[in-house]
Automatic annotation (TrEMBL):
Domain Alpha/beta hydrolase, first and last residues per copy: 29-448
Organism: Amycolatopsis eburnea
Designated name of the protein: Alpha/beta hydrolase domain-containing protein
Leader sequence segment: 1-20
The keyword Signal is assigned to this record: yes
């Protein structure tokens, strides 16, 4: 009785266990509606050649909402309680898995799809699908917020007529129930069950995952590891119409590891909550932008198919978009998080990007950032890579897409008198990054092959 009373007083009694009632998972017929998942890979990536298939499911159930208990301080040790129960919902999950179940390694990456521009965007899949498909991971993209659900219904009512999320207050429990479905429904992975389930989310989704890690994961225990990609110092609100904390570190008493992965665009907005602890690792990747050309190429192709933004027109900016190879660092980060979540070694630490007064990125003579995770394309540069752009046909997008400004021919000649010099320097930089753990062997080999084929000088 004393234990029960204590739990009631602290507001944790209803959130100490996973949901009792499992959500219902229903396959979406491949030819439903327009015949493809909105924001999915069909017609954008050749999954077949990689030995993968894309399938879509509806996830239905009753979700809880939560409210804050006590003062939420910047150490992230936040208490919460259930505010309401029995809220019906139906959402969708996009599953990308090996077509041969024997290839599935047991690792599932579940992405909180980003809705910053009013439509689901699978940012982390777009950066790391090569790693996922090389390694035999499965991927699940979850429509977790109302904006994404509403857009699905407007873009393809024939496919998503029953999708309904009444508000973002449901998002935290919906995301927990997605993990529950992943663990308990082997049909999602060709009859195989996962051994590790990792959460990931970028930008706006990263702010919600910050709140999830601090307030929901400790009581729902849904995930084995969390990737928070492109966060600012603040965290998302726990309920609708509630201001989230303005400063939020990741709590250090979690029983699962958290990897905070930051681009150069993100560091000024997050410098006040930098941390590296026994269960939290932070990488800041120099020369990179919050979003980049590699991801934009996939977004533009999916948008041309779905006509989600600007009637399908590609996103443009005033200057060439950042083309730094952020994906290499993200691939390595996922490999480290997978091992860490399985009880292996923590990822290698990395120096932060150099900041002056936590406000200004310190740069070299070519205007590239100092410090941080160093990729070979930055240590042996042919361009200056900046974190922000301007203009464009999608309001707010270019601010996040960064720029690429080629170095002058004279500077290129000064750095690399001949092609052999360029290749030798690039290869040495790639090998340094490989040894440091910032680059995986397949990406190292791809990068070196690019350098060998590049017309430099």
């Amino acid at each position: 009785m004393l234990v029960l009373l204590t739990a009631l007083l602290t507001g944790l009694v209803l959130t100490g266990t996973a949901h009792a009632a499992a959500p219902t998972v229903t396959a979406v017929p491949a030819n439903a509606g327009k015949g493809w998942p909105v924001s999915g890979a069909q017609g954008v990536l050749d999954l077949t050649s990689r030995g993968y298939v894309e399938e879509e499911y509806l996830l239905s159930g009753e979700a809880d909402t939560f409210t804050q208990t006590g003062l939420w301080t910047d150490d992230g040790r936040w208490a919460t309680r259930v505010a309401s129960t029995g809220n019906p919902y139906t959402t969708r999950m996009v599953v990308v898995r090996p077509s041969d179940p024997a290839r599935f390694t047991g690792t599932v990456v579940v992405e909180w799809l980003n809705v910053s521009f009013g439509v689901d965007i699978p940012v982390d899949f777009s950066q790391s699908y090569e790693h996922f498909t090389r390694q035999g991971y499965a991927y699940v993209g979850v429509t977790t917020q109302k904006a994404g659900a509403d857009k699905l219904k407007s873009l393809d009512p024939g496919r998503y007529a029953t999708v309904d999320l009444s508000g973002d207050a449901l998002s935290y429990d919906v995301f927990s129930q997605a993990a529950q479905a992943v663990r308990t429904d082997p049909r999602l992975f060709g009859g195989r069950s996962p051994s590790v389930v990792l959460a990931t989310g970028h930008s706006q989704s990263a702010l919600r995952l910050t709140t999830y890690a601090n307030a929901i994961q400790p009581v729902r225990h849904a995930y084995d590891g969390i990737m928070i990609h492109g966060r600012a110092a603040l965290a998302a609100p726990i309920g609708d119409g509630v201001l989230g904390p303005l400063s939020a570190r990741i709590r250090t008493d979690l029983d699962v590891p958290v990897f905070v992965l930051q681009s150069e665009t993100d560091v000024v907005a997050s410098a006040s909550v930098r941390q590296d602890t026994a269960r939290v690792r932070t990488w800041e990747v120099a020369g990179t932008a919050h979003a980049d050309q590699y991801g934009l190429d996939l977004y533009n192709a999916a948008n041309a198919r779905d006509r989600s933004l600007n009637d399908g027109a590609p996103t443009t900016c005033d200057k060439p978009v950042n083309s730094m190879t952020f994906r290499y660092a993200e691939n390595a980060a996922f490999a480290h998080l997978d091992r860490w979540a399985r009880g292996g070694a923590a990822p290698p630490a990395a120096p932060p990007i150099a900041l002056l007064l936590n406000l200004i990125v310190v740069r070299d003579g070519d205007e590239n950032a100092l410090g941080g995770v160093r990729l070979p394309d930055l240590d042996v540069p042919v361009a200056a890579y900046a974190p922000n752009n301007s203009g464009g046909n999608v309001p707010g997008a270019c601010l996040l897409l960064g720029t690429t400004t080629p170095l002058s021919p004279a500077r290129i000649r000064q750095l690399y008198p001949d092609h052999a010099t360029y290749v030798a320097k690039f290869t040495a930089a790639a090998d340094r990054a490989l040894r440091a753990g910032y680059l995986l062997r397949p990406d190292r080999d791809e990068a070196v092959a690019r350098a060998q084929a590049a017309p430099v000088p």
